[in-house]
Predict the 3D structure of the following.
Amino acid sequence: MLGWSPVIRKIFGLKRKSDPRTDEVQDGGRAIVVEEGIAAFVFNSAQPHLFEGYDRVERSVLRTVGTMCRGLEVEERMMGEWEQAILSGFESLSSHS
């Protein structure tokens, strides 16, 4: 939803090797760790309800996510975009259980 996933880029061999700086910063190890950290943080923040029945994500969670992705291309995404991505992710998670 956000057009950003260094993990997916690595898995599918879509890293942007033509630009060494982009490859290192946006698709590299730090970006992968940040993405995994955001996923873990959001998941743990959603316990025990997993945002089920919620239409909002706490602003403190969204602010922390914004701080975590500073320096990465996804830092330009708005809080509302993050909120929608998070809620959609948990909605699809609950629909598969």
Observations:
- Residues 16 and 59 are 33 Å apart (CA to CA).
- The chain is about 60% helix and 0% strand.
